[in-house]
Design goal:
This protein is of the alpha/beta class. The protein has two domains: 148 residues, ATPase, nucleotide binding domain (Nucleotidyltransferase, domain 5, 2-Layer Sandwich), CATH 3.30.420; 153 residues, 3-Layer(aba) Sandwich (Hexokinase, domain 1), CATH 3.40.367.20. 37% of the residues lie in helices and 20% in strands. The protein has 14 helices and 13 strands. The strands form three sheets. A six-stranded mixed β-sheet has the order 8-13-12-9-10-11, with helices on both faces. It is globular.
Amino acid sequence: MLSGLMTLIKIMQPHKTPEMTEIFILAGDIGGTKTNLAIYSSSAGPSNPINDQSFKSSDYNSLESLVTDFLSAEVNTPISHACFGVAGPVVKGKTILTNLGWTVEAKKLSTALNIAQVEVINDLAATAKAIPLLKETDLHTLRKGTGEPQATIGVIGPGTGLGEAFLTWNGQDRYLAYASEGGHADFAPTNDLESGLLTHLLKNHDHVSYEMICSGLGLPNIYSYLKETSPYREPDWLQDQIAEAADPTPLIINAALNQDSPCVLCLATLYAFVRILGAETGNLALKIMATGGMYLAGGIPPRIIPALESGHFSQGFLNKGRMTKLLATIPVYVVLNQKAALLGAASYGFERYNELK
C-alpha cells in the first residue's frame, strides 16, 4: 500500500508549462496550540515551501492578524490563492476553531488579506490530502497488514484535540479528502478501568467524547483519574512541575518514557491512552472500511512510538469481535512529518487554483 501511494506523487503535483507564469500559493495549518504558514510556488510544488514560519496561536486574537504578520515581509510575492487547514468543523468556508475560539471565514479572509481566492478546510482533511504525497521517511510502520490499492484510507490525529478524516479514490487519478468530527463522538469504554474513567468524568461533564480522553487535552484526565484510583503514587517532583505547568501533557509523556527511571503512574496513563487510541482507530477503520490503511497523525503519536509499539495500541485496535480478522489486514502508520497538514493545504490550494483559473 505504501509503495502504491508513492506512485501518486507525480499525479498530485501541479503541472506547469513553459508559457505559464509563476503562481504563489499561501498555505496554513491552524491549530489550537501552533500555527504553521508557508508560501509555495508552482515551479517548486507543494513539497517545497519557499518560506515557512511557525507561530504560537494564542499570541494572536485572529487568523487575519497572524497571517498579516507573516505576509508583512512578503511584499514582493504576489499571492494568487490561499488555503488554510483549521482545527474545527468547516461549513461553507466558515468555522469557529474548537480549541482556540477564533472565527475563521474564507470571504472575510480574502478581503482582509487582499487575496482573490481563499479556501478554508478542516486541518485533518488537509493532513489526509497530504498522505499520498508523503515519502517513506515521513512514515513509521506500526502494523504491516496487507492493504488494498486505491481503497479507503483513514486518518486520526491526536494533538491538542482529536481530529479525524478519510480519503476515497475518485476512480481516475487521485484521492479525495473528507473531514470528520468523529473525535467528538461518545467515548465507549471497553474494560473496567475505562468504565471507571467514564464514570469519573461524567461527574463533571454532561458529555464525554474520545477527544476528552484521547488528545493532549484529554491525557491529563486519565492521569488525574489514575492518580486518585490506582496504587501508583505521584512523585513529589512531578507534582511540583505539574502544578506550575500550563500544559501537563508533555511532562506526563516525558516521565512515562524516561528510559532511566520511568514514572509508573505516567506509564500506566500512557498505556491507557494508547489502548483507547487503538480502540478509536479501529472504530474509524470499521466505519469507513479503511482497507487502504490507517494513519496516526497529529503532534502526539511521533512522540510516543515506544508506547504505541508496547502492544496496548494493537490490543485496542484489534478488539472488535468478529471484525478482528478484518482489522488485522489493515496497515497502520505513524505520520512523522509534522507539517503534513501544511503540505496537504498547499496541495489543495494548487488543485483549487487550477480548477478556478
